[in-house]
Amino acid sequence: MNVQWYPGHMTKAKRMMQEDMKLVDLVMEILDARVPCASRNPDINELAGNKARLVLLNKSDLADEKKTAQWKQRLEAEGMYAALINSRNGKGVRAVHEIIKEACREKLERDQKKGIKNRPVRAMVVGIPNVGKSTFINSFAGKACTKTGNKPGVTKGKQWIRLNKDVELLDTPGILWPKFEDPKTGLLLALIGSIKDEIMDITELAVELLKLLIEEYPQTLIDRYGAELGESDNLPLSVLEQIAVRRSCLLKGGGLDYDRAAALLMEEFRSGRLGRISLE
């Protein structure tokens, strides 16, 4: 699948971020822990310049623990601060306060030497659509500050949020970049819901997911759906057919409803019902 999606409003949002970058001390980038590389917008490095950087691997409860730990080490090796969080239940979120202080220690020390007191750290929260920026901010603040939703495009404009006397956050809309050089990037972003489902063929998407699961997590398919992973000319489609049979995804005439089986598989993957799965 060659997936490309870059709505016009994202160009405007990128320009807005560029203008606001001079106002902040820290750039906090939210990634999806299941696809940490694919969910990193390469434009952020350019926009952030020499700002302090903190990367939050969100939805870590849905990702493979061993692989997520390796990604955290890799990000830290690149000179960034990194943390694992689950914004939905708040796990790891409280610790972010101390990491912000550490990441901005030089700025805070400079302020102290100049006699500047009580000036909060200003952090810009960035990320691609549907990685959970707004959910993180609400969890971090301990109250509903932003609108949330399990689909891309919920945050429409920038919003300053004063958390306490020490930290202010600038929430920004989720933006992608104009072209995915690697076709697999677009596919992975479609699988986690960062690209609108309305422009995708859900059955084709499910087949692509099954290819990855057969290769990396075959036991998950056996345990969850009783799938038989024998020899087949088109094993992913065969597994989708088995899911349709076992979950009674049937059309009125008795035929198999592949679209319904595909939607079921996608929902169970995205919600974590398939278990902890990383696609990178």
Features:
280 residues; 12% strand; 2 domains; alpha/beta; 41% helix; Conserved Hypothetical Protein Ylqf, Chain: A, domain 2; Rossmann fold; 6 strands; six-stranded mixed sheet; elongated
Structure characterization notes:
The chain is α/β, with parallel strands linked by helices. It folds into 2 domains: 163 residues, P-loop containing nucleotide triphosphate hydrolases (Rossmann fold, 3-Layer(aba) Sandwich); 71 residues, Conserved Hypothetical Protein Ylqf, Chain: A, domain 2 (Orthogonal Bundle). The chain contains 11 helices and 6 strands. The chain has a 6-stranded mixed sheet with strand order 3-2-1-4-6-5, sandwiched between helices. Helix 8 packs across helix 10 and helix 10 crosses helix 11. About 2% of the residues have low confidence.
| Number of E strands | 6
| Contiguous helical run count | 11
Q: How much is the average pLDDT?
A: 90
Low-confidence stretches: 151-156
CATH topology of the largest domain: Rossmann fold
Give the overall silhouette.
elongated
Strand order of the largest sheet: 3-2-1-4-6-5
CATH class of the largest domain: Alpha Beta
**Alpha-carbon distance between the termini?**
17 Å
Which homologous superfamily in CATH is the superfamily of the largest domain?
P-loop containing nucleotide triphosphate hydrolases
User: How many domain modules?
Assistant: 2
CATH architecture descriptor text of the largest domain: 3-Layer(aba) Sandwich
Order of helices and strands: HEHEHEHHEHEEHHHHH
The description of the largest β-sheet is: 6 strands, mixed
Helix and strand composition category? alpha/beta
Query: How much strand?
Result: 5-15%
Report helical residue fraction: 40-55%
Q: Could you tell me the radius of gyration in angstroms?
A: 21 Å
